[in-house]
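AzlC family ABC transporter permease, Ruegeria haliotis. Tokens?
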Amino acid sequence: MAFTTSKSYFWKGFRDGSPFIFVAIPFGTLFGVFATEAGLSIIQTMAFTATVFAGAAQFAALQLLQEGAPTAIILISALAVNLRMAMYSASLTPYLGAAPMWQRAIAAYLTVDQSYACSIVRFEKEPDLSIPQRMAYFFGSVTPITPLWIFSTYLGAVLGTQIPESWALDFALPITFLAMIGPMMRTPAHVVAALVAIVVSLLMVAIPFNLGLLIAGCAGMMAGAQAEAMLERRKVRT
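Tokens:
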């Protein structure tokens, strides 16, 4: 019975994660195209996407590579962009931390924006789920995305510049993040963090190597944390 229940949650996760394939395919294809334009071979492109498996960090590193940024800046920027994964992991630990080590290791590799967004919403809605049910849901949410991301990257690398600009594949990046962020704007602290990050990123647009985005991200996190602390103090007083 437990297996059947876990299996049903896998398919629930699969269904919840499936809509993201409509942005994962053009997003991955776009990365493959950009990677070949930057001078990477197909093997290098596929190794990059399979080992890093983090679209935003891959694009950030690739853009800086094209701009001739120092290696240290490229590494720091990619790591900074991926720092949100540490926050995702901390957020998921209360729900998945008791799972076997091998499952957590695989989940760490497969923790991306889409799998986190789907899973945290489900886990908060159903806090009484068992560990097997949660892990099944998590793996289900990322299953439709992972193979298509890798395949579409390969497709983009093979096609390269043959894809016409009129296809406008670059729409995938902002739409992906809007689709993930929208449902997560559940509290005033979330809204404050997003607004502060947007304003600071616009003010810092002139800083080279996109370092303004890192500053904006830090500012947004600090603002969100302060807003949440203020709201908690207000609740205690009332």
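The two ends are 46 Å apart (CA to CA).
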